[in-house]
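worker-03 picked up job from queue 'complexes'. Input manifest follows; three sequence lines, order preserved.
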Amino acid sequence: MIPQNHFLILGAVLFAMGLYGALTRRTAIGILMSIELILNAANINLITFNKFIGSEALGQVFALFVMAIAAASAVIGLVLVIAVYRNMKTIFTEKMNILKW
Amino acid sequence: MVRSAHLIPLFPFAAFAVNILFGRRLRKASALVSIGASFISLAIAAITFIGNARYGEGSYMVGRWLSFGGISLDFGVTVDPLSCMMLMVVTVVGTLIQIYSIGYMRDDVRFSRFFAYMSLFMGSMLGLLLSDNFVMLYIFWEGVGLCSYLLISFWFERPAAAKAGMKAFITTRIGDTGLLIGILLLFFTTKTLYFRDLGNLGINDAMLTAIALLIFCGAVGKSAQFPLHVWLPDAMEGPTPVSALIHAATMVAAGVYLVARTYGLFLSHHASLIWVAYIGAITAFMAATIATVNNDIKRILAYSTISQLGLMMLALGVGGYDGGTFHLMTHAFFKALLFLCAGSVIHAVHTQDIFKMGGLLGKMKATGWTFIIGALAIAGVPPLSGFWSKDEILSEILREGHPVLFGVAAVTSLLTAFYMFRLIFVVLFGKPRSELHAHESPAVMTVPLGILAAFSIFAGFFRPVKIEPLMMGVSIAVSAAGIGIAYVFYIAGNKVLPASFRSRFAFLYDLISNKYYVDEIYEAIIIRPAVRLAGIAAAFDSKVVDGAVNLTAYLSVIAGKVQYWFDLYIVDGIVNMTANITWLCSAVFRRLQTGFVQNYILIAFFGLAIMILIKLTGGQ
Amino acid sequence: MMNGLIRQLSDIVNNYGLPQDFVVQASFYVIAGLACVFAFGVVAMRNIFHCAVSLALCLFCVAGVYLFLNAEFLAIAQVLIYVGAIVTLFIFAIMLTANIEDRSIRQANRQALVSAVVAAAILSFFIFIIIGAPWKASDAAVATGPGLENLGRALMSVYALPFEFISLILLAALVGAIVIGKAGRR
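worker-03 finished. Artifact:
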């Protein structure tokens, strides 16, 4: 009923928004949230392909795994943000530029 | 015939080598080495002499030296009456003088060196006498010249002695150059250099005259004839034995010997021979006049030598070969005797000015009487040797028909007698003119005096005696006149007559006592321009040559500075420029390292977009 | 099951004269549109707490989208994991670190414009590719999803290894979080 392209376009839009957010947000938590968006866009793609191309359960299993990975990465990321906040007393990524020349 | 004559020079040469190398260790024994060698030479010379008297003359070859282009030069020995006589004279006189030197040079520091040089001289002189071609002669000629230089400037700490040595060497060198040119000319025209060939050379007269005169140049230098006589008086700076041996008896006789040896060449053309006579005459007269007003005992004898050599040249020049060579022999004996006596006197009173001496006959009997004997000989008083030889010269001059030259020779003989007895009367007679502590010399010095005196008396009888009453009367008259005038001046009218003569002939006196200003003329004409030329050359060297060198150095400095600038600004500039470019590039590119993660992600996705764009538009 | 619900819903709707499919499609577009809106809210809102809430709502919408794709289990799992755990974590972290109330802090950094351009470009490229690419399947595709039972069986048999790995990764993340988050380490 709903054509495949529309799901894929939805995924692309979410991906683009997540990309924009990852590039522009000034706080680390904002970036992490954007990354969650990107991962979800990927999930949408996977499940779309699973429904329309019809490999047995691969797409959904993969999407499940992606969700688990996203969770793990969110956990670690947030812990790191908290650790950095403890050390540098800032959440703004512009200040986290020790690698600068 | 005994073929051992070539050994004669060898022994003195060996003695020279030994004394030079081991003199320091031998010290006083070096005299024995020299005298021993000299004595052996004397023995062999005697044997040769006797052999020559018995078997006649000849020459033989000793060894080959050079041969090129069909011409060969050999070492050869010539044995004939002339060379045998000279050999005997040189060995006898040389040995006696060396014995005398033991005493005279006893306190000298360089005792052994003296005897070494004496041996070298003996060897060279004997080699000269024996040589049978011009090349050998020239070698030994130079050898005796060298020894003369070494021995005149033996006491080289005194600047006068050093200068005298140089003057002698340079003046004789001028003569030697003429000799060398003559030898070369002879070789290139005739291809032979042997003395025995000189009688019959097939070349034209002009060439013969030229060669003869050039060879005579050498003789003029060595025998101190005018105009190259200036070195002999100054050579008296050397020790008296040196003056006796070299400058009285032997070396100066080498010139006369040369003319005698090459007589055949001179005889070929009349013009060259007459030149010899005239030069001889001028020299004899001039030197005799100078001797009459000189006050230095050795210089009087030096001028006397010059005068007597002139007389010998005069004799040879008019064709009197026998007279000239005879006088050569007798003169050697009594001149050596006179010099040794003078040396003995100087050794005793430590002055050479005769007007500081006087009355020495009483204190130095042996020296004094032998001195008188020598003076009698040179004055030509019979029956001493000098009378016979001088008489022969005078008669030969007249016989060959040269009245003017005869007159000159006669006047010279008179002057000879005069100045000789002036010397005798002032030194040996009268009262001492200053404080003198005279004592007789040791036996080692007086014995040779006695032997030489004996020779002076009896040497005249080696030749067959010919009595020519007229000529002999003239000779005796001349000698007596000379002695008489000397007596009048210096014994009878002492201090008055000489002074009055001096004031009356003041101009003449000044001219003569300044030796005719010959030295001054040479100084002005030759020496000063030469020195100035040397100065110019030196200035040229320091300014131009050194200037060029300094210029190159200066240019090198400038080049170095340019290179420094180049290195500093350009080379370093290039290096710095590469470094700066790297810095600039890095300054640009390091801005990528913002340390800002989102920048990195942006760049990554930007790249991704580009890649997708390229893929979509069909690019590879 | 969901399909049945929707069918019942669509039957009711059908009674009101609307085509059955239309409701389904319309609801999809609504949910998709809401997801986009909330996603934009995530990236554009100034207050970071609002961003977190917006994220939660967006994830809800995405779960709804999953329903349309016959992935019922995944939709529930999405709600449970994402909204229930991850967003909660985010809110915890925000509370611990961020300065929420300050309105003067600019939310976007200096490279906003460039990254907007790049994102738009990539989005356009993707849409271009999606529309232009010959996808293998047609609309008349698999009607039903694999179903829960098949999913579980697949997870335990064919994909057992990745499943174990995932559990290991989750364990590592847990340990890492505890280690890094410990207050005493310096």
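worker-03 released lock.
The mean pLDDT of chain B is 83.
The longest helix of chain B spans residues 518-589.
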